[in-house]
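Example for tutorial group B:
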């Protein structure tokens, strides 16, 4: 029997076999608050019975006062398992693990020759994302796959452009959707994929949107961090969410990926940015489904009309989506984020939506569709009302 994390999206270290069917492993954390994610592969040889895996936190990186993640696990832990490399992810039953502050004990019935993957999240590897983006144009003529450049480790930063080429781009609005700024923002990546696949579909609602907008979707903004199973940073220990400090004032972005994104957007500034992130588990406060919302302060916009539309956007997400279920009000976008700086530089409407990973991949896909449609439809209604239509 062997326990390891040497594969794409794997996270774990200091693996030690403590008995014939028992193992201990340690999470590799980025920084406080990002000390929760693990992803192991268990390869069974001749053993049969119940394997036990003790998961310990990274002793060098703990959130203040005992770790929010560990406290959440004790009350609302949700873990996942998958049999084989192409099986479906399924939740571990509550009786299959024990959780307390900073420690998990997982029990898994195994048979000879089996291979299992165990994780706190349902991973969405960068290689799968890349294959999907690159394959879409072969059966979707209104989709174009493009690379914004390469990451420090040489992975392409892939963007899908979805629009109706029969309508000139100059006559359409521009929408930028991104996800995966943090390496294991898998629920956000599923949401971005849901939005992408909806826009590329044969649905008449999608066709109508393609005639009115150019959609640029960047489903994984941190390919290196994703591949290495890094909860927050890229391969150069940079937080991609906070890599845009001062860029609206002409300062250089704080990472190679952020520089590529900012340059691409500066060539054709978007009218709207939707950024999907992930809450990795339910927290002890809030209500189901425990999703979150970070919005731009309308006062950051340059004109009265855009300030009005940012207010509409903020209200649409708070009242018409589950985005307010984790907090009682929308949280403000921080000054070092893409959203804040795009609003200041280009008068761009923007919001960051945190998708709840515990809901699972398919609900996460649908969240992306729902959030996109809610925002676009509400903004269009607001514009019609403002024009007296």
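The residue assignment follows.
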């Amino acid at each position: 029997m062997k326990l390891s994390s040497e594969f794409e999206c794997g996270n774990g270290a200091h693996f030690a076999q403590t008995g014939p069917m028992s193992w201990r492993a340690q999470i590799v954390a980025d920084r406080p608050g990002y000390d929760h994610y693990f992803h192991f592969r268990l390869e069974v040889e001749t053993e049969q019975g119940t394997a036990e895996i003790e998961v310990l936190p990274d002793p060098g990186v703990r959130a203040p006062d005992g770790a929010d993640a560990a406290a959440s696990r004790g009350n609302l832990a949700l873990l996942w398992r998958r049999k084989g490399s192409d099986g479906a992810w399924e939740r571990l039953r509550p009786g299959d693990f024990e959780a307390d502050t900073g420690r998990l004990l997982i029990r898994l019935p195994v048979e000879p020759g089996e291979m299992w993957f165990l994780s706190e999240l349902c991973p969405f590897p960068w290689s799968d994302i890349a294959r999907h983006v690159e394959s879409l144009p072969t059966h979707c003529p209104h989709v174009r796959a493009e690379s914004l450049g390469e990451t420090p480790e040489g992975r392409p930063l892939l963007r899908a452009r979805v629009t109706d080429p029969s309508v000139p781009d100059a006559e359409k609005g521009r929408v930028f959707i991104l996800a995966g700024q943090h390496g294991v923002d898998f629920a956000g990546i599923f949401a971005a994929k849901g939005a992408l696949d909806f826009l590329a579909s044969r649905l008449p609602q999608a066709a109508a949107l393609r005639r009115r907008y150019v959609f640029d979707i960047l489903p994984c903004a941190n390919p290196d961090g994703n591949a290495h199973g890094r909860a927050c940073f890229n391969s150069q220990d940079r937080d991609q969410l906070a890599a845009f400090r001062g860029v609206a004032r002409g300062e250089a972005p704080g990472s190679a990926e952020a520089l590529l994104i900012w340059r691409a957007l500066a060539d054709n500034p978007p009218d709207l940015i939707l950024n999907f992130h992930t809450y990795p588990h339910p927290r002890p406060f809030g209500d189901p489904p425990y999703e979150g919302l970070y919005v731009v302060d309308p006062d950051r916009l340059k004109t009265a009309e855009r300030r009005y539309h940012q207010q509409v956007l903020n209200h649409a997400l708070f009242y018409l989506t589950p985005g307010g279920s984790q907090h009682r009000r929308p949280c403000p976008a921080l000054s070092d984020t893409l959203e804040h700086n795009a609003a200041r530089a280009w008068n761009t409407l923007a919001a960051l939506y945190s998708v709840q990973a515990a809901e699972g991949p398919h609900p996460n896909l649908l969240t992306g569709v729902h959030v996109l449609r809610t925002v676009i439809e509400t903004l269009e209604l607001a514009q019609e009302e403002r024009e007296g239509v």
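The first helix runs from residue 68 to 76. Compare this with the pattern of hydrophobic and polar residues in the output above.
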